[in-house]
Amino acid sequence: MSWKTDGGNVWNRYGTNVKVHLQRINERGLSQRMNQSLPPQLSREAYVHMCVAYPALLSIFEELGPPEVIKRSSQPLPVSVVKIVVGQMLSGAAAATIYRRLEKLYLEEGIEGPHLLKDKSLRSAGLSTAKTKAIRGFADAHAREPERFEAWKRCSYDELKKDATRLWGLSSWSASILALSHFGMTDVWPSEDGSIQRAVRIIRQSIEPEFQADKAAPYRTYLAKMLWAALDNSLLTDQPRNR
Length: 243
What we know:
The chain is mostly helical.
């Protein structure tokens, strides 16, 4: 399999165990899929790490296939922050509907982003008073201290979390989603995310009672994304899974 040509890093780290698990992957035909898709090395190493760290979840990982490499977002920071605030305590579908309304409004007004909309417009799109206040607070701070937010690009996750949660309405959950989805940090575990909590509960109840996210370090973002995908594809459900 082509992974063993990647400087030996994966093989040196995991030794015999990775060979055993990759043999299982090969037996199920995933090797051909991997070679066809040619995922970047970081994604491959993260995938192997997951397979070795969580053998009880191997069948789920095989069905999902290797994750896409995590990258820094190209969209402006204010757009990411608004999307995250909108998404707090809402389903993905409901959040997407509200954000489309905001996008329509700011494009019609000819302004740079949804964070610059007036409170009345934010509320008309379906945002609560609290979320409107959070977006307004961020927008004001962003205009007043641009260098503060420019520095976020160079922050560690702990530094980002500490500063982001100083803003009214941005929680630890908000900071974790910002870190992994906007800044592309690869070792973030969004422990306060409701879907992640559900996935962990299902795994511990039905698959692996001793499951610990820390075993995924330094690729915990990849683990989170794979568990979200497993829920979305009904590979993790409250019904017992045949393995």
